[in-house]
Amino acid sequence: MRMVDIIKKKRDGGKLSKDEIEYFVENYAREDIPDYQASALLMAIFFQDMDDEETVHLTESMVHSGETVDLSAIGGIKVDKHSTGGVGDTTTIILGPLVASCGVPVAKISGRGLGHTGGTLDKLESIDGLTVDLSISEFIGCVKKAGVAVVGATKDLAPADKRLYSLRDVTATVNNISLIASSIMSKKIAAGSDKIVLDVKKGQGAFMKSTEEARELAEAMTDIGNGMGKKTVAVVSNMDQPLGCTVGNSLEVKEAIRTLKGEGPEDLEELCFSLGTQMLMLGGAADDVSEAEEKLRSSMDDGSALDTFEKMIELQGGDPRCVDELHLLPQAEYREEIKAERSGHVKKLNAREVGRSAALLGAGREKKSDIIELSAGIELKKKIGDEVVEGDVLAVMHHNDKQKFEKGKKKLKGAYEFSVKEPKAEPLIYDIIGQEEKR
Amino acid sequence: MRMVDIIKKKRDGGKLSKDEIEYFVENYAREDIPDYQASALLMAIFFQDMDDEETVHLTESMVHSGETVDLSAIGGIKVDKHSTGGVGDTTTIILGPLVASCGVPVAKISGRGLGHTGGTLDKLESIDGLTVDLSISEFIGCVKKAGVAVVGATKDLAPADKRLYSLRDVTATVNNISLIASSIMSKKIAAGSDKIVLDVKKGQGAFMKSTEEARELAEAMTDIGNGMGKKTVAVVSNMDQPLGCTVGNSLEVKEAIRTLKGEGPEDLEELCFSLGTQMLMLGGAADDVSEAEEKLRSSMDDGSALDTFEKMIELQGGDPRCVDELHLLPQAEYREEIKAERSGHVKKLNAREVGRSAALLGAGREKKSDIIELSAGIELKKKIGDEVVEGDVLAVMHHNDKQKFEKGKKKLKGAYEFSVKEPKAEPLIYDIIGQEEKR
Known about the structure:
Chain A has 16 helices and 13 strands. Chain A has helices at residues 3-11, 18-29, 35-48, 52-64, 91-101, 120-124, 136-146, 159-170, 177-190, 211-227, 249-260, 266-282, 289-301, 304-315, 351-361, 402-415; strands at residues 79-83, 106-110, 148-152, 195-202, 232-238, 246-248, 334-339, 344-349, 377-380, 387-388, 393-399, 416-419, 429-433. In chain A, the strands form four sheets. In chain A, strands 1-4-5-13 form a four-stranded mixed sheet, with helices on both faces. Chain A has a four-stranded antiparallel sheet with strand order 6-9-11-7. In chain A, strand 4 (195-202), helix 10 and strand 5 (232-238) form a beta-alpha-beta unit. The longest helix of chain A has 17 residues, at 211-227. Chain A is globular and about 70 Å long. The A-B interface holds A 3-5, 7-8, 11, 34-40, 42-44, 46-47, 167, 169-173 and B 3-5, 7-8, 11, 34-40, 42-44, 46-47, 167, 169-173.
């Protein structure tokens, strides 16, 4: 078998066999196939696509390119959760403890990507002492004791995907449903959970710009998961504006803690309930949506969700006092209010631009080597649909550097659009794909 | 400017600007853009194509990526000749001296590629002592004295093309008219001649399988040449069966010498006359086809073409006695006849398969490091249309190794197809593109 023939076959619209896909992935993972052949194949796939079978074979091959985590020492049905990424999305930090407190173990392995704000791992590292660098046995031990742990991915997990992902990023071959779906699912499957709940976001702050695209991706991923024996459900949700009211690492941890106490923003709680419901149902802790919702609610109300989070923090080496004393989390040196310059309704609040504004404040990472300012970020006081009077505070910017603030402020102001009339409300959740039990 | 944005633009069907193309080529040539981004762009170009303007910009940028040869020290209109490559194609060795002897200087810089048989450079190296590694000033001196010289390309000539060409070969991105045309033309333009005659081959032994494709490539190349101020004419010729009656390095030199003496095979002479006519007309040595043909014929008849060849050999350090004593050229140890196993007419003689057979005998190069057996090759005694009686000699194989012979023999036998009736004759020359004067 020669790689150039595989490229040619796909270029000419052919269907790659299991053997051909395995040959490519195995040899690419061990660097026997160079990047320049891989990128040519990726571009050919961009144009000619892969069918469901090819996508499953690609996913399987990427899983087999590295280690798979064996979670069998943990009792119960382990349910993983993954989001395709948005701005202000702190759901994992809420859902992990919340779902675990309802009896479904959550063993979450997270990646550390680039982005407007840090990822879940960076956010958790706002907590004094907490480490996400556990060995697999420490990780399992933590899940057994607390019901939940969140750790960083090792380089041994789907290494072929890791290499391919970096390559796609610099060769304009990211945007292909099969490649996106297999990339995400290979990591999820290698991570060892039994079932998977996906949060597929659409909108200006998400990868998928339209609901149709998001639904297509959701279907591709659930097909892969189900095809590989891991029951998968996907929630298609809105990411036109940031989720919740904060964007930034320690700010989002605070918001997650408030949400676990039942005091979180409505949209964030709604999405957590939607995803949590699917997780409980897949995990066998609830038979239907209403039972699941009741359990989630009572876990919040009786404090067991928060207790679980404290236990997780402690087991991961962190100081759990921050749960009760939010001021222990990193605080920015300055807070500056951004005020409305006109009256009306917030018509749009471009999630991507808010994210970029937070990044300008220092909350994100452009290069791997960038150091995140955990305390920097934005508190949104007005979101889409809110009425605004000139002079009202739209947002509060948390920062440590006046120059960064000026840049971030300009960007944030551009994220808001106003209208005289109240804009039509968009739903937060568009669809749930693969749910067995109807609401 | 970022390479990933350039890839994305082409991927999405955009037209690349002059600046974008220059940015890519310049940075790629100095290895500031990695192969994996270049190959992604090449594959995007494969699918989205480039228009005439983009193709000219690509060609120009590749010319500017290295040195251009200044031939102004040589008087007269220098006319270059290039073939897109075939099997048994020894026209350059004939045309160089032939055209030069008619007063048009030929300063030919040739590449050393892989192939079923060696290229022009390898063939010339069959001549004892001859070197193709001249400095530019030696090269120019030789053209001034003999009217002709044939040397190897230096790495400084269109280096961006050199890098891109190797990359295309292993990423299934060779087959694109714009890329092929700009690759060939960048080298021709950098080589410094004033005008260019192209031999664009179509058929089983050529790169372009159909006359339409060959014509398309011919038009793309003449457009580039004319667009860059180098008048270019292209002859579209047949390469279904090998050209002439020999395939192999020293065998083809012998055939070239015989042709210069007026004793060559009909098809080879016909093509040389067609190309030579265009070269004389472009070089100002003839006003029309008949005048050109007369000059070429008389140069052959009065021995001045052969004299010119001898002079060139001598100036390039070779022993010119081989011209009169062909046995001084490398001779293979063994000659074995391949006989017809049935009677009929030769219906097909697959040029590619004959080429492969010669390669199996050792006449070609699969890897750069392979050493060519200059004496190995095939003499074709029967070609398309010839009548054959069972037991007739179809071909004579010249070899130095029984094992190689057995493999080559099997391949050669498969190249012949027979029919009861005489097959319909295909023309040798399909079209001449860009000729100002009609026949």
